[in-house]
Amino acid sequence: MNAVRLFAFFFPFALGLCSLAAEARQEPQAVEQTVRAFLQQATAGLPGRVQIEVDPFDPYNQLPPCRQLQAFVPENVRLWGRVAVGVRCTEPTPWTAYLTARVAVFGAYYQSARPLRAGQVLSPDDLRREEGELTALPEDVVLDASRVVGARLRGSLAAGQPLRQSQIVLPDVVSPGMDVVVRATGPGFVVENRGKALNRAAPGETVRVRLEGGRVVSGQAQPDGSVALGP
C-alpha cells in the first residue's frame, strides 16, 4: 500500500480520534461564564459601575466535560482588582480549576481641592469630587464627603491628592465621664444599658464603659455617641 493509500486509509480514523479528543475536553466558555456570573452576583453591592474581565480558560485542557460547575473564592477574599476564582465540577467527575479575573469599579471619590495642612479641620471647600477607577486607588479612599467634613487631617496634603480615611482624625463623640447608651444586639433581640464612658473615642474607636452596676465593658463608639458591644 503506497503512501497516498495509507493516508486515505488512516485519515478518517485520525480525524475521528481528534474529534473524540476535542469532545472529551471541558468547554472553556462554560467555565468562563460560570466565573463571570459568580462575580456579577458577588459584586452587585459595590459602589459605582463594575466592569468584569475574565481571562480565557485553556482551550486545550484535558478536563472531562462537566454538567454542574460551581465558582468559589476563599473566605475574606475581597473581589476588588485582580482576583483568582476557583471553579469546581460536582458531576459527573469531580475536578477543580482556577481562573484569574479583574474586577474594576468606577465611581465618585474625593480628593483635596487645594493644599491642606496638618491639623486642619476640613470644610466642604477643601474637597473636590472626582470620577475614576476606585480599584486603582487606595482601599480607604473617601467616598462620602459628609463623613469627613469637620474632621482633622493627620498630616499635610498636596492639592489633587485622593483623600484617605487613614489620613482623617474624626471628632470625638464620646468623652470621659459622659453618660452613654450601651447596646448589644443579636438575632431577634436588642438589649440596652447605661453607663459612663472612661475614655475619649471617635466613631469606630474602642471605648470602655462602666455600667450602672459597676461592671466595665468595651465596645465601639457609634456616630450618635452610643456604644455597640461586640458579639
UniProtKB/TrEMBL annotation:
Domain SAF, chain residue ranges per copy: 107-169
Cell compartments where the protein resides: Periplasm
UniProt-listed InterPro entries: Flagellar_FlgA, FlgA_N, SAF, SAF_FlgA
Signal peptide residues on this chain, from the entry's feature table: 1-24
Coiled coil: none
Keywords: Bacterial flagellum biogenesis, Cell projection, Cilium, Flagellum, Periplasm, Signal
PANTHER family in alphabetical order: FLAGELLA BASAL BODY P-RING FORMATION PROTEIN FLGA
Family membership noted in the UniProt record: Belongs to the FlgA family.
Function according to Swiss-Prot or TrEMBL: Involved in the assembly process of the P-ring formation. It may associate with FlgF on the rod constituting a structure essential for the P-ring assembly or may act as a modulator protein for the P-ring assembly.
Protein name: Flagella basal body P-ring formation protein FlgA
Organism, as annotated: Tepidiphilus baoligensis
Taxonomic lineage of the native organism: Bacteria, Pseudomonadati, Pseudomonadota, Hydrogenophilia, Hydrogenophilales
